[in-house]
Here is the input.
Amino acid sequence: MELADYLLHDEPFYRPVGNEVHLYEVAYAARMPVMLKGPTGVGKTRFIEHMAWRLKRPLVTVACHEDMTASDLVGRYLLDSAGTAWHDGPLAVAVRHGAICYLDEIVEARQDTTVVIHPLADDRRVLPIEKRNELVRAHPDFHLVISYNPGYQSVLKDLKESTKQRFGAIDFNYPAAEVEAEIVAHESGVDMAVAERLVRAGQRSRNLRGHGLEEGASTRMLIHAGRLIARGVSADEAFEMAVILPITDDPDIRSALREAVAALS
Ligand SMILES: Nc1ncnc2c1ncn2[C@@H]1O[C@H](COP(=O)(O)OP(=O)(O)O)[C@@H](O)[C@H]1O
Ligand SMILES: [Mg+2]
Here is the structure.
């Protein structure tokens, strides 16, 4: 793993929605672990990329999943031509070299995996590597960040209280219409008038949340629609392909969404 590969050279575009940039900087200065909370596609990943660029720290991202083990994070011995050699996992790399480690969708990981971050997420700031009988003290620049979608919360998939209470949190949500339109226009290349229409259609889909839709169209989906429009696809077809078809298989909800967009044009 070459740490230099994890440095961001070009500024990732991030449009602040509230005071999150400042709050993150302060949390980083205090080395307080941070939890980014909110639905999918609202800018959590983009935000942490932007912050890593601002703070000039490498960013190591891990997409958490059910089958992830502590070894996937910490490291393991691997057999090579010279015999067995130790390979640091992504968390150990970040801890040793002072990167920001972003554990995306942390609730997907099993709780027995999640506990390996506990000694890193309190005043000890250490990572015990049992297989090597080693205790790694975190580099002073190391920072632990996790993301969490409260919407998917269930008794089976929730963070342990002892994990939650180690983090400060920043809430992410759909931004105000003008701000979201600015983001959609910037990211997709459509003009503001088109972006504003997409955002209004997106907001209508969000009203169907809990009435057949688990979640409304995210900013990410609206950007997808915008990119199709910017390449010459009609607005209706773009919304169909980028939002309506992926988000639901229910014919009634699909027609409700279509009506919502049609009413806008
Ligand atoms: N505040 C924002 N500033 C800039 N781009 C944003 C913002 N919010 C969302 N986006 C755009 O939406 C896309 C999806 O956001 P992402 O960070 O991947 O969402 P999440 O990690 O919350 O699922 C990004 O690729 C980016 O284009
Ligand atoms: Mg993400």
Summary: Residues 107 and 158 are 6 Å apart (CA to CA).
